[in-house]
Amino acid sequence: MPQLRDSSNSGPTSRTLSVTPDTSFERIFGIETEYGLSVTGEKSATEGAKHGETKLDAARVASVMFEPVVAQSRSTNTYADNGSRLYLDVGAHPEYATAEARTVSDAVLLDAAGENLMAALAHGAERALQEREGEPDLRVHMYKNNADSQGHSFGCHENYLVRRSVSLRELEKCFIPFLVTRQIFAGAGTFRDGEYQISQRADFLDDTISSATTRSRPMINTRDEPHADSRLYRRLHVIVGDSNRSQRATWMKMMTAHLVLCMLEAQSRGEDYRLGVFAMNEPGFHMKKISRDLDFRYRIPLSGGVEVSAIQIQREYCDAAELFLQRHADELKPDMREDAAVCVQLWRRTLSQCEARDWTALASWVDWVAKYQLISGAVRRGASEAKGLQLDFAYHDIAHDTVFSALQSRGFVQALYSMDAVRRARHEAPRGTRAELRGEFLRLARQSPARWSADWTSLSAAPAQETRAVTAHILDPFSVEKTSEYEAVCAVLRGGRGEDPMLPLI
Predict the structure, then answer these.
(1) Which residue among 6, 22, 57, 89 is the active-site one?
(2) Which of 21, 58, 428, 495 suits 215 as a labelling partner, its CA being 20 to 30 A distant?
(3) Considering its fold, how many domains does the chain have in total?
(4) Which residues form the signal peptide (predicted)?
């Protein structure tokens, strides 16, 4: 029976790991997405009140949704074939955490694969509930957004492996202003209390950097679980961003963040990109103001006394990123170097389009603009506030995707990846990280009666009739080396292959 663990820094000791500082700009990227659930079309929801019946709640729907997962892995906490983690989080939120990716492009593709997997599980739950409840009109809706109709917020968390040389103080001074203003192109938009806002998460964030996650949400969570050598790296857990439907928006919010983090690492080695001049007091207050400023006129008072707009701040970061590439382009791997150059070019063009209020151009990939045009057009045609709210949620519904998919099919919003590529990514781990090793291990494990367990940094297996397990540590996220202990673990799985293997359902 497989067991899943959520390890932090387990693995080889210092005797087997180098402590030489990593002076490269390579990074590991990951995206954790929490999804919302709801049900419509139940007759019992409208007819049952007088009989004391209640409509299906999210917990019941999530439980049915994860039945195929439990049948395969004996748990609601498992890993998919591509090395990504799939689990049921607190509050009946299905969650998908992408496998370790060496490029932002890989992370975005894995995120799209997770969206496709979640939609498939939702469709399966819908069919099962229709049959069990005897209600053919029942619909299961799954939302890739950040708030439900009751005002509860759930997140899209970005993860970046960052060198320890970058201090939390520098992150607060130099990285937080970037995150606060990044929403002008990375926000998913929301129609709330009769008002349209740029960011779904802005109203729910109180602090800048802290260990809290619920009562007082920070923009960066300091939970220090690098899933790597903790002396060299920290895992920067960014929880300020919105869940994007647009693949380009997801790519841009992470590529721009990557470049800013590269500059901070370079500054820790003695360079100066003057990012500290953007330090601001009460960034949470300013984030909320920017979210309500659809014309980008709000002026942010910086700690130095100057007042600037979100566009101006982003332009300065973009200029600094261009300087960084001039200095260090040769140190980046070719694929990341090419992505970085494309990012800076699009970043600069996007800010000019924001300044010119060129909504048509921005709507081709900026979620909040695409959705704003959709809702404002409906309002001009006489739609009610309730209809606007309905369109808001429908834009994020991945199970019954009638709105966003229509925008893509008509060419209004551009996708980065074909559906064939997304489906393949559900079963293929990204290249160049330890996810390759985990993916191979999982494929073998699901064809073997051996007992096995897995987490981010270790893999274990034991023959069905034995209690002692063989374990392989995979602490280095950049390594794809098949060590002798990794081969030993796989040998246990190969040696225990049975005639009736567990089929890879996910």
Answers:
(1) 89
(2) 58
(3) 1
(4) none
